[in-house]
Write a structure and sequence with these properties.
Elements: H1 2-12, E1 15-20, E2 23-28, H2 31-40, H3 71-89, H4 95-109, H5 114-131, H6 137-151, H7 173-202, H8 210-220, H9 230-264, H10 266-280, H11 294-306, E3 316-317, E4 322-324, E5 327-329, E6 334-337, H12 339-342, H13 397-414, E7 415-418, E8 450-453, H14 456-469
Pfam family, one: p450
GO molecular function, one term: heme binding
Cofactor: heme
Length: about 475
Amino acid sequence: MWKKFKEWADIHGPIYRTSMMGQQFIIISDEKIAEELLVKRGNKYSGRPQIRALFDHKTGPGYVALMDRQDYWKEQRKWVHAAMADFHRHHFYGVIESEVRRFLAVLLIDPAKFHAYTREHCGRIMSRLAWDDATQGKENGESADCTLGRMSVSGPIVNTMTPLWHIPWALNPWKKFERAREDYQRAWWLNSFQLAKQRYLRGDLPENTWSYRYFAGLQQSGNSTLQQSAKDEEFASCMLGFQNLVGVITIAGPMEFFIMAMSLNPKWQKKAQEEIDRVCGDRLPTTADIPELPTVRACLKETLRWRSGVPLGVPHQCEVDDEFRGEKITKGTVILACEWAINRVPEKYPDPENYRPERYLEKGWPTYQEPLSRYPNMREGVGMHTFGWGRRTCLGQHIVDDEMFVSGAGLLWGFNLDRKRCPKTGEIIEFDTEATNAHVILEPDPFPCDIKPRSSERAARILQLYQDVRDELRV
């Protein structure tokens, strides 16, 4: 769909109107127009459209990113923003680095499962940060994938043919499935929250968790025993649970695309590895190395441009009647800033179809910024539309920045990522680099990649690094 929207933009211009099943859409393919509507007029364009296959997502408290701008949304967004910023100041207390050691070890043992391991890796980090239970990593990834399926246009047919949602309960498979799915997910989040609360009261919940931060805040406000109503516990468990869940696929997909990009672009893989070797030597890269590894950061940044994880953009909804360039925009109109098209405006991104990390490293490119010890990154500067617009900007920029850097640099430090060859013919196995699932947030379809340690010494080092932290990981 995103490629069709770009095709229409090339014909009709950077902003146009269309409709589907009676719903009005405005499609934007220009960064400045998106800023005008979704940032400068954010007080009018920051609603979320109804996703029919979900219950009550606009009123909360389950999914802050899908709520309308109401009290639940304001309170959850404020808390999550502060928690992310606080943890980023401490670079997430080394949790990412220790989980990367495990990630490299499992890839060394069974590299063919890199798709599943990448998602589990991201799930473990988020579950460990939420309530110190990395064992939830795999289930967290599966829950995220299922939730995304429910909220995507390509998901249940009721998301496009909404009258079907109103079929009586006894004959309605979509409502029955969603009731069971949401009830299970809410119960899981609530149980994790209550277990974390018990651990906090016993004094054995680590301080480097968001749940610890939440409970400490309750005590600072005068609630020393952490007694809460069922409604307040539901609110808090959903806030922490969704923060946990949304950080899985939003990072797993880009990391899988990064593996793809490196295997397809050996020249850039080699440049990044040479930079890592020069700065880190036999030492695994950490967040402390961020300023010294601009090539690694450029390769990661270009991955998000080349294969956007949210190519349609996350939809906004017009909250009041408005007018733009003489055109009436009625309340309820859905606004899509098409990331796929915005990332391919040739004036901003020359040679847009090709993977060109040098656009962030060499003077003369429109996206070049100095100093290279700071830029490019995932927190500021050019290309931040990847994380959304205005009041709906993604709150996870800080963890994306740290997690993708440490994971990506660690992969290149430990492994060579090559095209897979047919064992019978020796020919490179071709695949569609644009093949993905059809969720609103994408992961690539499984693709072949040959992942091998860079040397026997590096393989032994990977295993030793994992052994050093194994006792502190819940595996």
